[in-house]
Structures are given as C-alpha cells and as structure tokens.
Amino acid sequence: MRLLACICAACVALCSHCAAQNYPDKTVSLVVAFPAGGSTDPLARALAQQLSEGWGQNVVVINRPGAGGNIGAESVARAAPDGYTLLVGTTALATSPSLYRNLGYDVLKDLAPVSQLMITPNVLVVHPSVPARSPRELIALAQARPGRLSSGSAGAGSSNHLALVLFNAMAHVDILHVPYKGAAPAVTDLLGGHVQAAILDVPVLLQHVKAGKLRALAIATSKRAATLPDVPTMAEAGYPAVNADNWYGVVVAAATPKDIIAKLHGALVAALQAPETKQRLAGQGADAVSSSPEELAAYMRREIEKWGKITRTAGIKLDNQ
User: Fold this and answer.
1) Where are the alpha helices (DSSP H) in 111-236?
2) CATH number of the domain located at residue range(s) 122-219 in this protein
3) Least crowded by CB within 10 Å, which of 11, 94, 220, 321?
4) pTM across the whole model
5) Mean pLDDT for each consecutive 10-residue tract of the chain (321 residues)?
C-alpha cells in the first residue's frame, strides 16, 4: 500500500510538472468582478494584451459584476485550480470578509495570491453645481443641508464607500451613500448631477476633472496624486483619518499548483514592466506594483484586519443572515 501511495504521489507530481511546463496551452480567462468601464477594466485589458502576446495564447477579459465584487471572486474561488481562470482582485477582497456573514467563499483559504498589480488613490470630487471648493466647505454645506447631499460609490462595501463612512464620521455629517454596480455607472450619474459627490479611483475621474466636468477637492490617501498635483490630500485638508486607496492584484483558485503560480507570476511581472503598460497606467494616475505571492498574501491579511476594524467600529454589515 505504501508503495502504491508513493507511486500515486509521484504521478501527481509529474502531471503537475508537465502541466506547468505546457502552461498555458489554451485560452486564459481574466475575470473582472465589476462592470466594464470602471477602473479595473483598463488594467485588465492592458494585462490581457501583454499576457496574450507573451504566451501566444488568447487571454479574454470577462466581466462578472455583482454583490460588491463577490460574484466574480466566488466564481474564481470555485473554478478549476489549473491557472486558466484568474481574478483581478481589488480592495473588495479585504473589505468583504467583515461585511458579509455568509460570503460564500473564504478569501484567505479559497484563493491563492499571485501578484499585486497596482495601487490607485481615491479622490473626493463634486459636481460643478455644488458650491464647495474644499472638504471643509463641503462639510459646511452638508451641515447646512442635512440629508440633501449624496455620494455615489462603486458598490456597498467598496473602499470608496468606506472612505465616505470615514469622512462622515470625522466631519460629523450625514452625506447619503448611493451604491452602484461599479464605478462607471456611479460616474455617469455624478456627471448628470443625480448624485452630488463621490470618492472614487483617480483613473475613472481624471479625464472629467481635467475637462472641468467635475471638481476635485482632496486625495483620500497619504500622498498627492502625480496626475492631480494641485489637489491636496485629506490630511492636508485636516482629515487624516480619511485614508482609503484602492489596490489590485491577481489571485487564482487555492489548489492551483505552485509551479503554475510561479510561471503566472513571472508573466505578470513582465507584463507590468512593459513600457506600454507602465505608460498606460501612469496616464491614469496609477502606480504599477508587482509583488511575490507571499508578499501579496501578507498584504491581504493586513488589509482584512485594517478594514475589519473600521467596519466593526462603524457597525456596518451588508447582509442580515
């Protein structure tokens, strides 16, 4: 029996090694857990192009939005662990564990980190019709008009939703949260004046701010954005607790062989270092940041702990079961 077990183990190891050597030999799916047009889309499509060229295989971007990114994330957690279904994960992977009692998957147990991709700052913007040119002026307006100002987000539990929670708590105001199924529809309604404000990724807002269609009040991270150098940070405006950037990374199903993860990691790092990718992301105000799988795993654990404390303090839960 021991001999048979050893033979079986050796066969499994050999098959895994062969699969890694041939990987990828068919189409790879890159899942985006939000609608097309949001900040995740340009990154995913830039990566898909670079990976496809490097591998000589098709890499297709699949949008699976819903439930604050959890539908797409769960689909990857339940996918075959063969490296052919990837998720462009976001900060939602860190916020969801404390927001949902019945998440349907375990972020740390059911998903295997591959590499971080980029970090983008969130920025507080208002529609031009709003007579506020700083966070302090927006707060004064919210105090004078309680319950009449609203802020759109990419979804309940997103980093931009929680940034608004932090802003409301710090300023002692009640700006109404309006969740959307992604950043793109939130921006559409913001441009139309259906919501008055938003705290969203710089990439989805940059062109509208530069065109004067939206007014940027403050960057919701610890340093200014290179693409919006004249916009102060929340700390500079007097609200240091409102610190909520958005990060992105690739994860796969947890049982994916380490050889395949290593090969995928190498391809992602090469794709991020490509001049075309760097230029494309920099133009959107994003910083390309690669990491080892172990570094991303540690980062995710820290982020889950960080956002867990914030959601518990604020008493936020997104399901009641």
Assistant:
1) 135-144, 159-171, 183-191, 202-210
2) 3.40.190.10
3) 321
4) 0.85
5) 52 55 95 87 91 96 90 97 97 92 92 94 96 96 92 88 90 93 92 96 93 97 90 94 90 97 96 87 78 96 92 77 43
